[in-house]
Amino acid sequence: MLTMLWDMVLSRERYLSELPGWTGRKILYIIEDIFNLKQKGIYMKTMFILSTALILTAFACGGSNNPAGPTPGNDSEFYPLAVGNIWMYDCSGTISLSGVQMGTISGITEVEITGTETHSEGFDVFVQVNAVCDTTEMYGQTFVTDSTFTEYIRITDAGLYGYSNLTNTDSSFTVPFPLQDGATWTFAEEPPTTGEILSMSANVTVGAGSFENCMEMQTVWTDSTMGGIVSNTADFARNVGRVSNVTTITEGTMLITYTNNLVTYSLN
């Protein structure tokens, strides 16, 4: 999906036909009205990369024991999942070009487990709904991103698996168990994304409180064609879930930093 977003930066018509429901379409029109053709490529790319950051952030969420459920007391505690669970995150970020800040990002993200479904392969998954509402301000102009998308989460004793729909035979991302400091793996095949456990003992303080012995996981995608790098570092607390994550996107002289910190949560 990330590669597709990069490609679509080069073609407005292809973008509109393949992603007709995205709020980003309206942003595209606003940008075209504000900036000339020479500038447009930079700002179009900014908004598309920002959309990519939101997607990668959501992939960092995850879940816990599936409807069948792994045994308690294991790595699934980092992904407490039950129908009705809700996590609320405060979001902030900056957009810089050649070291000069061009814009700011602020908003909220709500993640909710709304139910369960049966995958076409016969196993059950949790339905995770991600609602993102961000405001980006650049050069005195304001752009609002208000989008909701759904993922399907399965967890077993072997690991965490995410699916973009109920018919995909291959998971869109994977986090294998056991979780061990220094472990590396292929987080996603497309786009090719690597995962690494940076720590099993991180201490994190956010609006929702202070959390000890968190699992810190980093995912990195490098686009060989455009030279862009998307990196996401997320911290998970046992029996809480994701408490914080920082996404950085670099492409040439452009740098976008996007942070989510947990402010409230309710678990069943």
Helix content: 10-25%
Main-sheet strand order equals 6-5-4-3-2-1-12-11-10-9-8-7
Order of helical and strand elements: HHHHEEEEEEEEEEEE
Mean pLDDT: 77
- Category from helices, strands and their pairing: alpha+beta
Structural features:
12-stranded antiparallel β-sheet, 12 strands, globular, 18% helix, 268 residues, alpha+beta
Explained architecture:
A hairpin with a 2-residue loop joins strand 8 (193-206) and strand 9 (209-222). This protein has one domain. The longest helix has 23 residues, at 37-59. The chain has helices at residues 2-8, 12-18, 24-34, 37-59, and strands at 86-97, 100-118, 124-138, 141-156, 159-163, 173-176, 184-188, 193-206, 209-222, 229-237, 241-251, 254-266. A twelve-stranded antiparallel β-sheet has the order 6-5-4-3-2-1-12-11-10-9-8-7, sandwiched between helices. Helix 3 packs antiparallel against helix 4 (37-59). The two termini are 32 Å apart. It has four helices and twelve strands; from the N terminus they run H-H-H-H-E-E-E-E-E-E-E-E-E-E-E-E.
